[in-house]
C-alpha cells in the first residue's frame, strides 16, 4: 500500500486502483457530501465515518491541480475592486 498524502487530519493511501481516505476524526459531513454529490462514485464508508474507500485511476490534490494549471482560482461571491 502506497501513502499518497498524510497530515494531522487525514491519510490517503493507494493499493492498485483502490484508494482509501482515513480521517483522524469522524468526518460524517465531508464523507456524506462526497458520496451524495457523486464527487466520489461508489465509495464505501465504515460505520464510524472515519474511512472511505473507492476505485479511481488517479487522485490529485487541489494544490496539484492549481499548480498544473488544470483549474484556476475563483473568487466566490463578490468581486473586490479597490480604488486606486
Describe the structure.
- A five-stranded antiparallel sheet has the order 1-2-3-5-4, with no helix packed on it.
- It starts with a strand and ends in a 16-residue tail after the last helix.
- It has helices spanning 28-36, 62-68, and strands at residues 2-6, 10-15, 18-23, 44-45, 51-55.
- Helix content is 19%, strand content 29%.
- Residues 80-84 have low confidence and may be disordered.
- It is an alpha+beta fold and 84 residues long.
Descriptive labels:
single chain, 84 residues, alpha+beta, 5-stranded antiparallel β-sheet, 29% strand, globular, disordered C terminus
Short account of what is shown:
With 84 residues, this protein is an alpha+beta fold. Helix content is 19%, strand content 29%. Residues 80-84 have low confidence and may be disordered.
Helical fraction: 10-25%
Cα(first) to Cα(last) distance is: 54 Å
Structural class: alpha+beta
Given the structure, what is the number of helices?
Answer: 2
Order of helices and strands: EEEHEEH
Strand residues, percent:
25-35%
Largest sheet, spatial ordering of strands: 1-2-3-5-4
Shape field: globular
Tally of strands:
5
Taking all Cα atoms into account, the compactness measure Rg is 16 Å
Mean pLDDT reading: 83
Please give the largest β-sheet: 5 strands, antiparallel
Please mark out the parts with pLDDT under 50 across 5 or more consecutive residues, or reply none: 80-84
